[in-house]
Amino acid sequence: MGYLLLAGAIAAEVGATTAMKYSEGFSRLWPSLLTLAGYVVSFSLLAQTLRTLSIGTAYAIWAGVGTAAIAAIGILFMGEGLTAAKAAGIALIIVGVVVLNLGGAH
Questions:
Q1: CA 99 to CA 101: how far, in whole Å?
Q2: 73-78: long-range pairs with CB below 8 Å, 24+
Q3: Number of alpha carbons in the 13 Å side-chain half-sphere of residue 6
Q4: What does the alpha-carbon distance between residue 56 and residue 72 come to, in Å, rounded to a whole number?
Q5: What is the DSSP string of 65-96?
Q6: Count of Cβ atoms closer than 10 Å to residue 26 Cβ
């Protein structure tokens, strides 16, 4: 159940961060409200996740997957370029999360 809650926390965080892009510096009401709601849901689910998963594992997955997902959304849907440095950074995030899950954050 912990990983299911964590997946929801990641999805809410990614949605909130995407909405933040469309809020234009919090000058547009609905994207701003979606940003706020998404982060409230994300942190609430992350807090519930910490009942069953270690903080190191949960936070590493939440932050790493969220960061990689936002980078991918930027590249695929928002016209951001994919450079070798950006691709390497995303790969390092994924490798770091995998390493923590294999034994570094138990």
A1: 5
A2: 73/14, 73/18, 78/21
A3: 21
A4: 24
A5: HHHHHHHHHHHHHS-----HHHHHHHHHHHHH
A6: 12
SS3 state of residue 14: helix
Query: What is the rounded CA–CA span in Å between residue 1 and residue 49?
Result: 8
Q: What angle do CA 55, 57, 58 make, to 5 degrees?
A: 65
Give the model's pLDDT for residue 38: 98
Divide the 106 residues of the chain into consecutive groups of 10 and give the mean pLDDT of each group.
Answer: 96 98 97 98 98 92 94 95 94 88 65
Contact 63, 57 (CB under 8 A): no
Query: What's the pTM value of the predicted model, to 2 decimals?
Result: 0.90
Residue 104 and residue 9: Cα distance in Å, rounded?
22
